[in-house]
Specification:
The protein has 372 residues and is α/β, with parallel strands linked by helices. It has 2 domains: 176 residues, Rossmann fold; 179 residues, 3-Layer(aba) Sandwich (Rossmann fold). Helix content is 44%, strand content 16%. The protein contains 15 helices and 13 strands. α1 packs across α15, α4 packs across α5 and α8 runs parallel beside α9. The longest helix is centred in the last third of the chain and has 18 residues. The radius of gyration is 21 Å and the shape is globular. The chain starts with a strand and ends with a helix.
Length: 372
Amino acid sequence: MHVTWLFEYPTLHGGERSLLAAWPALKAAGIRATAIVPARGPLHAALVRETIDIVPFETHDAAQRRLPLSELRDRLAAALLAARPEVLHANSLAMGRLSGPVATDLVLPSVAHLRDIINLSRAVVADLNRHTRLLAVSRATREFHVAQGLSEDKVQVLHNGVDLERFRPAAPTGWLNKRLGLPSGAALIGTIGQLVMRKGHDVLARAAGRLAHTHQDVHWIIAGSRHSQKAEAVEFEAGLRRLFGAAGLTGRIHFIGELEGVEALLPELTLLVHPARQEPLGRVLLEAAATGVPCVATDVGGTREIFPIEANAARLVPAGDDGALADAIAQLLADAPERRRLGEAARQRAEEAFDIRAAAARLLEVYGNLGK
């Protein structure tokens, strides 16, 4: 079966990594993929490494202004007529909105992936409902969008998966301490994600400030970068750096940017903290769970589907509550046996529910049903 994937941005984040993680199993099952994607960037490079055919497609002009919807749809229709896939898979809500009417006009079976929990206009809901099938990354995502008017019959849940061989428990090697010039015994608390308001880095900064004087051997690792050039995004990052500085953490806060090998970073961390204000299904939480890294995360979106209360596999705290976040971090820093237990429970949870092979099999079934 020939499937065309549609991507909006050249970046390689959770949604793109989740789909690419399933590619080996899809390829082994006989899927041929073509990607409609921006012509340069990390995502393009990753697709080239996987020898996936590429159709260049830009959604923004040179000044990073989004092109008119009608123009994008005309260009997408031409690309699809040239590629002639049996199934179209729009890998984001935005690309689902763009492609819904196009797929309908071309009588092309299609699926759109809902990887965001955001408010939608009536027009966006109508465009998304043009697809044959809609995939939500969590029950929380499905419930949110069905309540907005997406077709209950079309939206099904398909949790992302993680490669349990690539992400697996391993002893720390100390490479990150050496790279940053830190003592070998320093505790490393990390967060991984784009530097955007939704990820809650500012809440983490305030929580870290609460612990600055009582936990002076702790170093804070911020992995990720800002991609938006909008003024408010630039100011958010600048304000975030000021927050950490004002908290008395100069010399103990480390912005390390994006790393190609997250699987190498995770075992070095004492704790993974995910302070997001909203999270449909955090990929970094799946990767941390598979690696056996103890996690403190906000109880939002699909996070409780990764770490249900009965599994007792992570510490969940309310979103935006820096006091609760600081308390959870302090408790785990003081309790090494509990950290080990949480890591083991998280790995078990990943094995039970988030194996990439199972996720790929479910996606393959979706493709097969669409292609009939």
